[in-house]
Structures are given as structure tokens and as C-alpha cells.
């Protein structure tokens, strides 16, 4: 029995049939089913029948994908691939059946041979984590890695990132960096061993976007469930709105800034953007760790939250209020105390679209009188990242929450620009 043989494996009353694949752990057999999925089967007490030998040349197929060397071409732009982990750079752990992040940037190049010939590549690994483990410390390391790549002359940067917190990291880079080249985040909703994986198309479209003229922080993911185009979302206006769909990411309040046609490789934009080379590079990675995000809901224990907040020494608090930006009337004095103690308190809305306006109802007017700052239509998560950055870098972070720093806030109630 060798890798490449077609086998039937019976264990614990379950029968699986397919091609035997190499396994990284001797305790498990890996079988590729006819539908394209891989399964891990514990060897102990497994009954294996070899149905046909050498039906699949595993070693040859592996060598073709793992020895990919992309020669430098003076006629091609240079794109830096920076890996932080996530599903786009992941595989299945057959001990647990879970997806784990364990590939570096060079592995992604081998796994996505479609990237060859599109650019000269530089690879760098900043972290190797699932995105729920992302921290502000890693944001700082990522910003510094991007700085190194830009100073080395790269024409564009692609950041491979887990999708769960991609919007937060994209927002952080938007505030930390002024960039003369595109910085494009991409990821994958489904791991590479699944037939429905979106990793190849997302990676290819991200590289094409990194070669384009929009020198902003972008998120590049499937525009629909079909494999026809990837949407390009501004890093401060994007939100993951579905747990598992391939088109989970949406620009809130408008259509995406642009898109990449997968077949033609054409990159188009709908609105004005910061063009390549127009912005001088700058970096400011300081962040306040003393900023929190509080979502108000009916029935929450106001006294318990009040005691908690009074016990913190916060630089800032983002409140995710209801509707136009409201909280329970009895909670307003607590927010006033925080403002009086020097905490910047800013109001966002938990509605999926629209902007805060605390001049319509008495509650809103009382919030304004308490010193709470309106954040307009800034997304709550983006507002937290923005306030973390503003508290550490600006003399008047409260005023900054009322104006746009990186496309996160519109000044008027018009379709997003």
C-alpha cells in the first residue's frame, strides 16, 4: 500500500474509498475522496483494501507544485507577499480534523501556481496565526514589515490574513500607514483542500490589484458566490457580513470601490482613489491599549457596566448605540463622568447602514451635552481602531473622531464616496 493507490478503508462501521495520499502523521491515513475532499482516518483497527495501484502519481504531482521557482523578470512588477496565517495559507490537521494555519508565503506560491508570471515576488512571514488570535502587537509588526518592503522598492503588497478579523487589521494599516503603493488584504473562506476553495481566485485577484493604480489599503475577496470577479473594498469601510459564504465581505453603504475580473484580469474602480506614487510614505504605529468598545442592549446591567468602566483608566470608549446613536437615559451620567475624567467617548450605531445623529431626540441631545462625540457613519470596529490610533498620535483625538482620516467617515448623508 503506497501513496497514489486507490484504496477502500473500513473503520468503526464507516467505509471510505479514494486515493491514498501522503500523511504527516503515521497514526492517520489520508484519503482523497472522489468529490475532492480529503479525510483523515485513524490507522488503528482500520481494514484497508488496495483496489488499484499507482492510479495517481503523487510524488510527481507534489514535485510540480513544490518546486515552483519564479525567476526574476525585469519586465514584471515586484509584489511582496506577507503572510499572517489564516485559511488562505492553511491545511487540515488530520489528528483533529480542524483547519490550521501553518504555511508561509513561499508555500502559498507553490499552492497557487497561477501566480507565476504575474509578478516578481518577495515573501515574508509576520505571523502564523488564525485571525482570532490577532493582536495590536502583530499590527505593529505588520506595519513595520510593510515599511521594509516599500523601502526596498516593492510595487505592491499583498497581505494574506484570516477573514474573521481582517477588517480590523485593514483598518489599522489604513491609519498607521500613508502609502505610495497598493496594500491589498486577501484571505480564504474555505481551505485549499476543498473543491469550493476560494484561495486561488482571491490570491490571483489580489496580486492584480497590487499591480494597479489605487495606492490605498484594500480588501480583495469574492464579489459573489460565482468565480467571476473579486470585489475591492476600502479597508476602513469593509465588514465581514457572513460566516462562511465566499462573498462574505461587503462595503457598508455603497458598492465596493472597485473589482478585478478574474477572466480578463482587468481592474476597474468606481470612485476616486489615492493614486500610485502620489502619497509620500509615512508610518505611525503607536496605539493606545486603553480603548474599549461597548455595545448597548436593552436589559443590560447598567450598574455593573458603570462600576466596570469607572474602574478602568480608559483613553477612549466607543459606544455602539441603537438607531441614531442612543443608550438608556440612566447610562448617560456614567458616560458624562468618563468624559469629565478625560476619556474620549464616541458614539456609533449598531445599525448596518446610516449615520449617528444625536440632535433629533432628547436622549441624543443629552449625550451631546455630556460630551459624547458623534462618529458619523464610521463602522464601530473601525471606530475602535481609529480611536486607538488617534489617542496615541493626535493632540485632539476627540476632534479626529468627527472627521475622516482615511476614508472611514463621510461628512454628509450621501452615498458613500
TrEMBL record:
SMART domains in the cross-refs: Asparaginase
Membrane-crossing residue ranges in chain numbering: none
Catalytic residues, chain numbering: 87, 163, 164, 240
Coiled coil segments of this chain: none
Keyword vocabulary terms for this entry: ATP-binding, Ligase, Nucleotide-binding, Protein biosynthesis, Transferase
Boundaries of every L-asparaginase N-terminal domain copy: 79-270
E.C. number: 6.3.5.-
GO molecular function terms attached to this record: asparaginase activity; ATP binding; glutaminyl-tRNA synthase (glutamine-hydrolyzing) activity; transferase activity
Pfam families given in the database record: Asparaginase (PF00710), Asparaginase_C (PF17763), GatD_N (PF18195)
BP GO terms, sorted: amino acid metabolic process; regulation of translational fidelity; translation
Catalytic activity: L-glutamyl-tRNA(Gln) + L-glutamine + ATP + H2O = L-glutaminyl-tRNA(Gln) + L-glutamate + ADP + phosphate + H(+)
InterPro entries (UniProt xref): AsnA_fam (IPR006033), Asp/glu_Ase-like_sf (IPR036152), Asparaginase/glutaminase-like (IPR006034), Asparaginase/glutaminase_AS1 (IPR020827), Asparaginase/glutaminase_AS2 (IPR027475), Asparaginase_C (IPR040919), GatD (IPR011878), GatD_N (IPR040918)
Residues in Asparaginase/glutaminase C-terminal domain copies: 290-399
GatD N-terminal domain mapped to chain residues: 1-51
Main function: Allows the formation of correctly charged Gln-tRNA(Gln) through the transamidation of misacylated Glu-tRNA(Gln) in organisms which lack glutaminyl-tRNA synthetase. The reaction takes place in the presence of glutamine and ATP through an activated gamma-phospho-Glu-tRNA(Gln). The GatDE system is specific for glutamate and does not act on aspartate.
Family designation: Belongs to the asparaginase 1 family. GatD subfamily.
Assembly notes: Heterodimer of GatD and GatE.
Record's protein name: Glutamyl-tRNA(Gln) amidotransferase subunit D
Species the sequence originates in: Halogeometricum rufum
Amino acid at each position: 500500500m503506497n501513496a497514489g493507490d486507490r484504496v477502500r478503508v473500513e473503520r468503526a462501521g464507516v467505509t471510505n474509498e479514494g486515493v491514498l495520499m501522503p500523511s504527516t502523521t503515521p497514526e492517520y491515513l489520508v484519503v482523497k475522496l472522489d468529490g475532492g475532499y480529503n479525510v483523515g482516518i485513524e490507522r488503528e483497527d482500520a481494514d484497508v483494501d488496495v483496489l488499484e495501484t499507482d492510479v495517481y502519481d503523487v510524488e510527481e504531482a507534489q514535485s510540480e507544485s513544490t518546486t515552483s521557482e519564479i525567476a526574476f523578470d525585469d519586465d514584471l512588477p515586484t509584489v511582496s507577499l506577507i503572510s499572517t496565517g489564516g485559511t488562505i495559507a492553511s491545511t487540515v490537521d488530520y489528528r483533529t480534523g480542524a483547519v490550521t494555519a501553518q504555511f508561509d508565503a513561499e508555500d502559498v506560491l507553490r499552492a497557487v501556481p497561477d501566480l507565476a508570471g504575474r509578478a516578481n515576488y518577495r515573501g515574508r512571514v509576520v505571523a502564523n496565526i488564525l485571525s482570532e488570535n490577532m493582536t495590536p502587537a502583530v499590527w505593529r509588526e505588520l506595519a513595520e514589515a510593510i515599511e521594509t518592503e516599500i523601502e526596498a522598492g516593492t510595487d505592491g503588497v499583498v497581505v494574506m490574513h484570516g477573514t474573521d478579523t481582517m477588517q480590523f487589521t485593514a483598518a489599522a494599516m489604513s491609519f498607521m500607514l500613508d502609502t505610495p503603493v497598493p496594500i491589498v488584504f486577501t484571505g480564504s473562506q474555505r481551505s485549499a483542500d476543498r473543491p469550493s476553495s476560494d484561495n486561488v481566485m482571491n490570491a490571483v485577484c489580489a496580486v492584480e490589484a497590487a499591480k494597479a493604480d489605487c495606492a490605498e489599503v484594500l480588501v480583495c475577496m469574492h464579489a459573489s458566490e460565482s468565480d467571476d470577479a473579486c470585489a475591492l473594498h476600502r479597508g476602513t469601510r469593509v465588514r465581514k457580513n457572513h460566516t462562511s459564504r465566499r462573498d462574505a465581505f461587503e462595503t457598508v453603504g455603497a458598492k465596493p470601490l472597485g473589482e478585478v475580473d478574474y477572466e480578463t484580469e482587468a481592474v476597474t474602480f468606481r470612485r476616486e482613489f489615492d493614486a500610485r506614487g502620489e502619497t509620500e510614505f509615512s508610518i505611525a504605529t503607536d496605539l493606545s491599549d486603553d480603548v474599549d468598545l461597548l455595545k448597548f442592549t436593552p436589559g443590560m446591567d447598567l450598574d455593573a457596566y458603570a462600576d466596570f468602566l469607572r474602574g478602568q483608566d480608559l483613553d477612549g470608549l466607543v459606544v455602539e448605540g441603537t438607531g441614531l446613536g442612543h443608550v438608556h437615559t440612566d447610562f448617560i451620567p456614567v458616560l458624562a463622568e468618563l468624559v469629565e475624567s478625560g476619556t474620549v467617548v464616541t458614539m456609533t450605531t449598531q445599525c448596518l447602514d446610516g449615520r449617528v445623529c444625536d440632535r433629533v431626540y432628547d436622549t441624543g441631545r443629552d449625550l451631546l451635552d455630556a460630551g459624547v462625540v458623534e462618529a458619523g457613519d464610521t463602522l464601530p470596529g473601525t471606530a475602535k481602531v481609529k480611536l486607538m490610533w488617534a489617542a496615541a498620535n493626535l493632540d485632539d483625538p476627540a476632534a479626529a473622531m468627527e472627521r475622516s482620516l482615511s476614508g472611514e467617515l463621510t461628512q454628509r448623508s450621501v452615498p458613500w464616496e
